[in-house]
Design brief:
It is a single chain. The chain has about 100 residues and is an alpha+beta fold. The protein has one domain: TATA-Binding Protein (2-Layer Sandwich). The chain has helices at about 15-30, 80-95, and strands spanning about 1-10, 30-35, 40-50, 50-65, 65-75. The chain has a 5-stranded antiparallel beta sheet with strand order 1-5-4-3-2, with helices on one face. Helix 1 (about 15-30) packs across helix 2. The protein is globular, with a radius of gyration of 13 Å. It starts with a strand and ends in a 5-residue tail after the last helix.
Length: about 100
């Protein structure tokens, strides 16, 4: 079982905007969101691949801007496999974020 965790800080982006963008990004990389906690900016999702199941957790924390932690756990995937999936999702997230004025 492999696990990765990536944390990013988004200056000038609200926690709400980051949360919405993360939900969209997960859907674009074929994750099924099974639980959200909008008040706590938490998303739990999973995805089945030929190599096994992947569980994802996204937590957003308000700061000056927002901090986002993206965690993936794969039953049989390598850390490199998970990192590739995470980077694809984070690219979609980055592309969809609009900075607050």
């Amino acid at each position: 079982m492999s696990k990765i965790e990536i944390t990013r800080t988004y200056a000038n982006v609200s926690a709400d905007a980051c949360f919405r963008a993360a939900k969209e990004a997960l859907a674009r990389v074929d994750f099924e969101i099974w639980k959200t906690r909008p008040i706590g900016w938490l998303i739990m999702a999973h995805r089945q691949t030929a190599e096994g199941k992947i569980n994802a957790t996204v937590a957003v924390r308000p700061r000056t801007g927002a901090d986002l932690t993206f965690s993936l756990v794969g039953e049989t995937l390598t850390e490199d496999d998970l990192r590739s999936i995470a980077e694809e999702a984070l690219t979609f997230l980055d592309d969809s974020l609009v900075e607050d004025p």
